[in-house]
Write a structure and sequence with these properties.
Radius of gyration: 16 Å
CATH superfamily: 7,8-dihydroneopterin aldolase (MptD)
Number of domains: 1
Order of helices and strands: HHEEEE
Strand order of the largest sheet: 1-2-3-4
Structural class: alpha+beta
Strand content: 25-35%
Number of strands: 4
Largest sheet: 4 strands, antiparallel
Distance between the termini: 24 Å
Amino acid sequence: MKDPARKYFGKVTDRERAIFEGAITLGALYHQFIGAAVHDAKALERAMEQAAIAQPFIERVRVKIKCPKRKRIRPYVYPELSAEMLEIALVAKYGGARVRVGMRYVRELEYPLMFIV
């Protein structure tokens, strides 16, 4: 695939560009969806996957939302997506390079870590 934006990326390798595309997509998903209502976790997972796959050079995406178990429904408890609930794995392909990147909350760091697999 000819990339009309390639000239804006300087001298980067296909692998570096694939990592960049994957990382940008992870960041976009995180900032777009954190705080979203989790009424139906499966539906939200699919919506996030569709948003990610619409990005250039993204081949596959898997989103997993781990909802905490609630013993009973209480009034005024808003079930919203938080970093601790989210796991994302995706594959980005650019030129001859294919990379896997991911995101998950790492308790020991107390941080939603985005990483290269």
